[in-house]
Amino acid sequence: MDLPSRLIDVDSRGKGVKLVNTDDLPAGTSYAALSHVWGNPQTTPPFLVTTSSNLSPMMEMVQLESLPQTFQDAVEVTRALDLRYIWIDSLCIVQDSSEDWKHEAPRMAKIYSNAYVTIVGTSATSAHDGFLKRAVPNIPPARVPYSIPSRGSFETGFCYMQAKYSSCLYHEPSMDLEGALWNTRGWTFQERILSRRLVHFTKSLVFVECWSADWSEDNRVPGSLHINRMPWLGGRSSSGECSEDPADLLRSWYNIVEAYTRRSLTVEKDKLVALAGVIERISKMTGFTNVAGLWIDDFADGLLWYMPSKELRRRRLEHPQGPSWSWASWDGPIYCRPNFYTSGIESKEACFEILQIGSVQSPFIPDSGHLRVRGLLVPVNRTILSLKPGSVSLDMNCDESGLLYHDTISDEFDEKLVAFPVLHYTVEGKGAYELLLLSPVPGRSLHFRRKGLVTTSEEDAWPGPLETPLGSLLSFPATSSILEFTII
Questions:
Q1: What is d(CA 179, CA 396) in angstroms, rounded to the nearest whole number?
Q2: pTM of this structure
Q3: Which InterPro entries does the protein's record reference (predicted)?
Q4: Cα separation of 30 and 242, whole Å?
Q5: Residue 80's CB: how many other CB atoms inside 10 A?
Q6: Residue 243: alpha-carbon gap to chain centroid
Q7: Do residues 462 and 475 make contact, with C-beta atoms less than 8 angstroms apart?
Q8: pLDDT digits over 388-426, tens only?
């Protein structure tokens, strides 16, 4: 089992802790990992982190009192679990070294999945809060004896029951987990997915969450907690193992994108990095290749994301981590069309041929990650997309029609807009299309940027069937033509 480059030694024989290199530790050394919220950088006081200047002293001794309370609590829990080592991001990664960050960040998948347990400061809103202190219930729990038949005899013991009614209003303790600030942050998303088991310290209860079961401090059985399960990679079988079927993994991936993009990141450029561990896990299980958050092996479906029409946050990032066709270069929640296809699809095929996908340089550099394709470019009239009554009009508020989805809150459309047919599918003998709305890049021939997503049926398409590069017939204007072009 691979170890992180550094761990915190919490050997309880001393009052302090120290940072250690793992080169001399046995490969199977057990360690805990901490998942926590750093805090709002504008309002949270600075706390101890590892830097190039204090790296050597950190490997000698660190007084426990010099650590923020959340770290102190994590050390206490690690010792209580009889573990000697814990991984804490801000202490085990040199924070002012871009080289160390680039080396350690891609290893997040292994760091969390190889940890014996992930300790979660679920109730903490910053590194200073801590998570072990909590309000004591006004009504003490009742001690109830029990007796269970077991192999011809009886197993006896006691359980504790806690009143859950306060002011006649029922409080579901799992809300303290799902509603926690920790559960809204981008980095903690993959930490929760990739960890083998987690111990959540919420405001009211301790929860144990792993791939095969959940458990709570108040003795409720697995399955009764109604915790909002994360979209596990491929879903879990009855044995608790995740499925390795590529189709299952792809279905989970689109759920992951939707859930992840609803979370917040302090640093925009972390958009893909904070999900790199999940991408690495899926790639290893399937052999698929990911470019800018899309799988080449399912590229047509991957292109068909869109922004919710009521989302006021939707905009392109100031420092995008991918090209315009990648969801990772946009801010705000993303919906994936594959999750909304009508059930009973009889056939589905891509309408274009991929010629080249340029590698994405990070931080994203314009023109890297370009998509070169051979496909149709359908001229779009600025006023109407279709001749039928009630069809999409680019001059109307079309979001409510469910056919046109703008990528930004307001967009100025010019006369040169084109639609790029991406996918054709049939349900009960009726065909439908998914198209990207593109705008030409000024001064660059046959270069376009994505502007939105259009969905339409064969009945609403223009007359004049044309043959796509892959042999399918589509009904679009006779002025449409098959070209080689680039989307950046």
A1: 37
A2: 0.81
A3: HET (IPR010730)
A4: 23
A5: 9
A6: 18
A7: yes
A8: 332 333 322 333 333 677 787 655 555 577 889 899 888
